[in-house]
Amino acid sequence: MQPRSDQRAGLAYGFAAYTMWGLLPLYWHLLDAASPSEILAHRMAWSLPVAVVILAALRRWSWIGPLLRQPRRLGMILVCAVVISANWFLYIWAVNSGHVLEASLGYFINPLVSIAFGVLVLRERLRPMQWTAVGVGTLAVVVMTLAYGKVPWISLGLALSFATYGLVKKGIKLDGIEGFSAETALQVLPALGFLIFLGTRGESAFTSGGTGQALLLAGCGIATALPLICFGASAVRLPLTTIGMMQYLAPTFQFVLGLTVFHEEMPAERWAGFALVWLALVVLTWDVLRTARRGRAALADAGARAGAAVASGARAAAAEAATAEATTATGPESAAGKSPAPETTLER
Asked: How far is CA 290 from CA 3, 130, 246, 287, in A?
């Protein structure tokens, strides 16, 4: 059981992380003078210095040597770097192209896609309520496809890329800051090459957009790393179920921004699609909470049984010890009773 102070700190860190992720569209919108590809390149290039500073502050360098001697893990990190780069690019492009609502839908359906990957790739078995949630989520995609006359590819692209990232990352087994550092180390050279290419062509917003624009582009590294740091601090203090519930904060903030700040249209068919996705998430959340509650009850019952067994064993051991002690105490008296008494010998 975590101390209450740790839980409060974990909630604060988690709320900060998901709030920052949810408000990122405002930051990317400030950079709309730059192309999505340039924003992405700056995000990758400036993330590595931030990661190095964090590693230096924590003095966590020992993982680098063993990792460099494992080509398979390096290959998986490369896959992660490519997939998350695609996810970042699509998200930045969606925000600066007026598709914030579709982007938020992608992160709403991401848990459902992750569950589907668990079945298709990891051969996991789903509970009935999980199947129901996946079915309702699939129906939502079908409804929006029929209503719009096209597949919601932005939402699906974001969900699929992030679910793939999570799936591959599961096999790497690196902590948050270590994995982030390894991925950005692989991203930095292509990013720098692209930024130099833009500079030679005179198309760099970093050099032509003024000091404010340059500082905002340089701040992409902090905007990327800071939520991740807060998320890591939250993850070590809170149960996984609580983290799972908090993950819906980010797309909720994005959804609200799409409606109130960017004034995107929300026709009836889009409301219907979102409503089905939210229904699927309610079913999934209820199933997670119910399973966690049953698991805690089963664990408590097992603990009570183990305690009773220990107590019963202790009582049995105490009884055996008492019996042995009584036997030892009465043994000489019985022997004396069976021996001739001194008085009898004298009488003879």
From this structure: 23, 12, 17, 5
Please write the tens of the pLDDT for every residue from 52-104.
Answer: 998 998 888 999 999 999 999 999 999 999 999 999 999 999 999 999 999 99
Q: What is the pLDDT of residue 324?
A: 66
Q: List Cα–Cα distances, 207 to 31, 49, 212, 224, in angstroms.
A: 13, 20, 11, 22
User: The pTM is what?
Assistant: 0.78
* Pair 252, 277: CB distance under 8 Å: no
Q: Among 93-102, 137-146, 222-231, 334-343, which range has the highest average pLDDT?
A: 93-102
| C-alpha to C-alpha distance for 155 and 143, rounded to whole angstroms | 14
For the chain, how long is the longest CA-to-CA vector?
A: 133
Angle between helices 128-148 and 268-338 (to 10 degrees): 170
Q: Determine the length of the chain.
A: 348
For residues 112 and 137, the answer to whether their CB atoms sit within 8 Å is yes
Exposure string for 184-193, b = 16+ CB within 10 A, e = fewer: bbbbbeebee
